[in-house]
Amino acid sequence: MFGEKALELIRELHRNREGTLAPYNEDGVRQVLEEMQALYEANQQDVSQLVQNESDQTSLTAVQIRHDSLQRNKRCLLAYLYNRLQKIRELRWEFGSVLPANVRSNMSPKEMEWFSKYNRTLANYMRSLGNGGLDLTQDMQPPQNVHIEVRCVEDRGELELDDGSKILLKKNSMHFLPRSQCEHLIRQGVLKQVT
Amino acid sequence: MLISNPVRDFFHKIVQERVLVMVAQDVDGLCACKILQSLFKCDHVQYTLVPVSNKQDLLREFDAHKEQYKHMILLNCGGNIDLLDVLDPEDDIMIYVIDSHRPVDLVNFYCERQIYLIMRHGPDEIDLIPDYDCIYRNYESDEEDSGTEYEQSSKRHKFDTETLEKRREKKIWEEKRKEIIFDYEFSYYGTSASVVLYELAWKMSKDDVTMLWWAIIAVTSQYQNKRIGRERYISGVLELQGHLSRLNHRTEDQDTTTMSIDAMKINFEHDLDIALYRHWSLFESLCHSLNSSTTFKVWTNLGMKRLHQFLAEMGIPLTQCKQSFAFMETKTRDNLQTLVQEAAEKFGLRNIKYHSFTAQCGFIHKLCASDAVYSIDALLSSKVGSELDDENSNFVDALDSLSRITAPKVISGLETAKIQLKAIKNNVGSFIDIGQVLSYGPFLFSSIKEGSPDSTFFAQPSFLLMFAHYLLHSYIRSLGKSKRERARNLPLVVSAPKQDGNTIIMGIPPIAEESRKNLFGNAFVHSAERTKSRTEHYFFDSSAVLVKNEDTSKFIDALITIMS
């Protein structure tokens, strides 16, 4: 039946878990396109016959059905591609401008191209905000605490804070600092959050 | 300078600032630190926390941080040393001191700026501090005198009688001053820093059950380490109990059904004054507690027999006594308190029960305050004889174990505490058997030999203190009636070698002294001066001192002459 393959693509999209990107189903897409091509050609043929022989109206219904199938396939394909792009956009906000390798491998070359374009647009926009730009992807939710308690794991000398004051990072000393100040130090392993 | 309104003059002043908190490494300091941390958390006060274990640490950390911080808080340290002299702070540095060590240094108390003391204003705290006039008149009069001497030396003979009168007055005054200062310099412990801070939190309506628990632990630790006498402990406990019922009442007012079983609850109850019995077996616990072990004299065979008799009297089978408390029969466990008390009366075991608190979280975790103290004390001194880094990680561990009673660290602390108690018991037994406690006249003396198996333990002042108390009590019980009365009024001095060529000498007050006042701080200073021994008054507690190994004997000799 016509449209079966396209529906399969939509089902696949639907089956995917939230927030994951399934591999790009190139085969499926190609088959749908082939089907559409075939339908289109069949329609062309019938229509040209109709034009030549106006009295014979029998194939008109077939043309109607083929055309609807074509339309339906197109809608399904567009939905498939659009939803994937939506997902990729979400991933951009989640992971930042560089996607993990396993996500990249699931994307088609065209999607990659779109991704890098989107990246550029977003970066341009973020740069234009405020004075020196603003990273919109930080703090997507309001943080629970502005300050967190951290313990210093190694001697790192002085740390200058945003307000110009300095603190001394010494092994085993504990500090209560603004979260934004120590996030990168926690990632580096200099500080450890105390719960 | 004494702060009269801690909320206004202390807390509101530092709320906008970045502060440095220096914490002494003892239970009280840690508890105070936890309370302060949660207060700071409420108000987003940025702080840095540094543990200090002795005066050198204090000075070093102060120097390292003095560039960055203008407001410093000393928790349970520094009150009894002249901070202006020792730290020599810049003019814009404010130092707030919350300390339970007494006596308060007079310079700290009377200086008008920089040093701020936060302590309770009760009559038992403030009235003991001598009046300003008694101490400081001589500076002015001295200057005046010298001034008149230089400028008006020609005229001086004219006022002979007047000056003579003045001199006589001055002499009397000086003698009086000496006397007052001598009386004043007895070291003892005041209200614990945690309680002071808890009251601060309470005045700001920011107190909760967890903070109260920390205050409870601090008071219990003071009692357990014999820093305060029984009477002061009981009054402290009753005060805390008032707070507890207020807090409990408040939660009842809300909705009882919303209280989760996992939330912490504190109960006030009469408990047995024996060490760690909930986490040990009854038999072991009786063997290792100060009160019961000295009454039965467990280091002798006869004493062991008496202990067994005691258990028989209670009617608990020996197998049950020797298995873990948690596995004893439920019926026995429920009746244990009455059983022990009845039997204790017959055996002359006094004060076996005392007022205490237990905290409970969920159905599994139940911890009584004294167990918590043992655990934290053990954690603080667990990695003994190693470098400084480890001392600090002890601090971190202990702080972690305070944050929740369900923390796994609590259990490991309890295990270490058991090992320590066993070491104490064994050593006390052998010390008394060999007669290593000697009477030197004005005090009893006992020295721990270098290379004894537990010498790493003894290098820890907190362990040494506990050992000294056990030893003194046991020694006195081991004496005959006539000697015992005399020995009750004698203090004990113990010395223990450290690895680095120094010896810790520590003095504890006699048993009969209910106020727990300790005169050794002063005596040590004089003795060191007289013999020119190389000593370091290294600890926050003035009744312990470090002496070079070679100087130990002459130091002790001098101590004998001073005290007699």
UniProtKB/TrEMBL annotation, chain A:
| Cross-referenced Gene3D superfamilies | 1.20.58.1030
SUPFAM superfamilies in UniProt: GINS helical bundle-like
Single Gene Ontology BP term? DNA strand elongation involved in mitotic DNA replication
- Ranges for domain DNA replication complex GINS protein PSF1 C-terminal come to 147-194
Instruction: Extract the InterPro entries matched here.
Output: GINS_A, GINS_bundle-like_dom_sf, GINS_Psf1, PSF1_C
Spell out the GO cellular component terms annotated for this protein, sorted alphabetically and separated by semicolons.
GINS complex
**Endpoints of the signal sequence:** none
Q: Which domain of life is it from?
A: Eukaryota
Q: Which Pfam families match?
A: PSF1_C, Sld5
- Where in the cell? Chromosome; Nucleus
Does Nucleus show up as a keyword for this record?
Answer: yes
Which key words are in the record?
Chromosome, DNA replication, Nucleus
Question: Which positions fall inside the GINS subunit domain?
Answer: 57-129
Q: Which family does it belong to?
A: Belongs to the GINS1/PSF1 family.
Question: Its quaternary structure?
Answer: Component of the GINS complex.
Its function, per the record, reads: Required for correct functioning of the GINS complex, a complex that plays an essential role in the initiation of DNA replication, and progression of DNA replication forks. GINS complex is a core component of CDC45-MCM-GINS (CMG) helicase, the molecular machine that unwinds template DNA during replication, and around which the replisome is built. Required for correct functioning of the GINS complex, a complex that plays an essential role in the initiation of DNA replication, and progression of DNA replication forks. GINS complex seems to bind preferentially to single-stranded DNA.
Tell me the protein's name.
Answer: DNA replication complex GINS protein PSF1
From TrEMBL, chain B:
In terms of domain of life, where is this protein from?
A: Eukaryota
Q: Name one Pfam family in it.
A: CDC45
In which compartments does the protein localize? Nucleus
GO BP terms, alphabetized: DNA replication initiation; double-strand break repair via break-induced replication; mitotic DNA replication preinitiation complex assembly
Q: Name one GO cellular component term.
A: DNA replication preinitiation complex
What terms describe the molecular function in GO for this protein? chromatin binding; DNA replication origin binding; single-stranded DNA binding
Give the record's keywords alphabetically. Cell cycle, DNA replication, Nucleus
Describe the family membership recorded for this protein in Swiss-Prot or TrEMBL.
Answer: Belongs to the CDC45 family.
Q: What is this protein called?
A: Uncharacterized protein
